[in-house]
């Protein structure tokens, strides 16, 4: 016969084991949930629309601190039309049908001296792809008829980012409507939380996989000259190196040559997997107030 004390002892042990078991189940559930969320995020990343961003110039008529194209540090240089044509011609044939959208981007694209021609050649090489021209809009009231006709006839949409500056964006949008050119307001940098600072670690000690997994610039596949990089942070870092004496270097795997692209799987791989440069990137950019750049290294480097 089990005495009362033994029964109580057994009961206590039973509840202790049950407690441990339930705790274990709870922890396992949390781990499974994290794994499920991770897998869902990876799958969502891979399903994101595929876009290619052709950089016309990093030079800009605004001077925003922490710009992800390092525009405040960029000298006034423009991609040649010949190089643009060469890259667009090859990529149009190799991957055009598999892209969701092509961007013409900067810097400020409206400063590009051959813009009507550039829009025409992009349409020729990407006949059915959505094409967007990114701009801060400031020069829209000064654009020539040739610009408006080319944008309209080539079906190029203007993607206007609003900045908190003294400029009549409503009038600029009205102008697009009057010219029959489609446009969208891509973002408003004056809104709370709309301006971010991305920091680089000069010692390259970051966990590249984590930085890439959490990357806010994923998908900004950038064509610069005859090379393709996964993002502007890496593609345009030469401006930072030149102006501030930093040594953010590229190594094999950080880019692919335009001429080597045969199908979209190469672009997706470049977008969806970390590259060596990701180990320079600190995860979690900080929200910062919009302001003018002082062209100081600390705007981009920790
Ligand atoms: S307008 Fe855009 S490209 Fe120009 S400095 Fe500002 S963030 Fe950079
Ligand atoms: S280098 Fe990698 S982590 Fe850094 S911005 Fe580019 S894709 Fe993102």
Which ranges are low-confidence, i.e. pLDDT below 50, for 5 or more consecutive residues?
none
Instruction: Name the bound molecules.
Output: iron/sulfur cluster
Shape: elongated
Average pLDDT over all residues: 94
- Cα(first) to Cα(last) distance is 73 Å
Order of the strands making up the biggest sheet: 5-4-3-2-1-7-8-9
CATH 2nd-level architecture: Alpha-Beta Barrel
Radius of gyration, in Å, reads 25 Å
Summarize this structure briefly.
By secondary structure, the chain is an alpha/beta fold. It has nine helices and ten strands.
Tell me what you see in this structure.
This protein is an alpha/beta fold and 302 residues long. The chain has helices spanning 4-47, 81-95, 115-125, 145-153, 169-179, 208-213, 232-235, 238-244, 264-272, and strands at residues 51-57, 101-106, 130-135, 156-162, 183-188, 196-197, 222-224, 227-229, 256-257, 286-287. The strands form 2 sheets. An 8-stranded mixed beta sheet has the order 5-4-3-2-1-7-8-9. A two-stranded antiparallel sheet has the order 6-10. Helix 2 links the parallel strand 1 (51-57) and strand 2. The model has no long low-confidence stretch (mean pLDDT 94).
